[in-house]
Amino acid sequence: MELRPIDIAQKLDVGTSALRHYEEWGIVPKSKRKPNGYRIYTEEHEAYFQCIRTMYHGFGMATVRKIMPMIQQNKFTQALWEVNRVQADLFQKKEQATKALEILKPENMQRFMDKRNKKWYTIGEVEKEIEVPATTLRHWEKEGLIKPRRNPESGYRIYNREDIRRLLIIRTVQSSVYLLDIVRVVMGKINQHSISEARKITMESLAYMDYQIDQQLRGAHYLYKLIELLKKKENDT
Q1: Can you tell me whether residue 29 is helix, strand or coil?
Q2: For a designed S-S bond to 215, which of 58, 112, 224, 226 qualifies (C-beta 3.0 to 4.6 A apart)?
């Protein structure tokens, strides 16, 4: 069955230019051409396009561009394991965000701070206190998220209790959103008496993850349908 680009584009609610881009990126098989140069798509192409569009919402185009060439090479199991890896990453992010939300409860934050009664902490001590590598602490400092003081004698970084509290919030928010730009916005709104903005961002992140897992399962369904179609085609030849 021959299909025109416009037929598929209208069915998937995308422009025909998007279909051309997918072909240029090598994530769908090359189409045949009519004498006038127009592309001819098949049922197989339609299944590829449908899979790409549905997987995009849950997995992102980077993952789609990684998986589709595997499918074209009949590396079906390898592609499925890649899907599984991405879903496992999302589950881990959800677990981290859920823990972050618990940490950000005012009573839990206060309990954490009550156990820290030293006036100054070294970077090594902070590393252990909040379980963040020193390299990450230095990166956050470079990004302007934290400004530790310096020991006047040794010149080494030193952190007070408020610094540790701020670092804990940075760690918690980043575990949910993974974008320093968003962390920077959150930290700009937080003062020493309020962490409501951090909790709001974390809850929004969890809500988006719920949407994302729904879209991932939908995308995986269309991927499975594509694989079954290709297997049937292979068996019929």
Answers
A1: coil
A2: 58
